[in-house]
Amino acid sequence: MEAFAHLLSFMGLLLGFTLTEIAKGFSGALKRRHLIRIGWLTPLLAILFMLDIADIWTAAWYARSLVDMSTAGAFALLAWALTYYLSASMIFPDLWDDVVSLDDWFFANKHWVVCGLIATSIASNAVILSLERPEIDAGLIEWAAIMAGWFVLLAALAWVRSARWSYVLLALALALELQELVAS
Asked: pTM for this structure?
């Protein structure tokens, strides 16, 4: 448990930076609300990312008895968190001078954000599966089918060019994240 507490504090720091990046983006958008069109796509993507952080945090808690401290594990966590942070940093612009619409920003950058979310989600689930080593049964097959659907949904969101389809896919992703958080 001590190893978990050590890694959890490290993970908490890195996820805190990620949440700070998202909060800074929301703040920047609100400060410029009279100068730019905020829209819904970028804020919804940011909310999806925050819900995913909550989901990751609860998954880490459930895996606490399986975690062992090692240099390789710390490096893997660092690589995972860096990917997560870099993805979150692309949700909102750093420089707002040329931004007219956050919906335009969304379409120019969402593939970086969503592909980072896919990569970190695959890595997280692979680690949990390797630590738990569950028996193959109907529950695991159902979970794998749900995860496959989640990844297809995120991949579609990353590459679709239509605002309407982006809203639909974001709504579905948000509903799944909320359902996961309520169920856990």
From this structure: 0.89
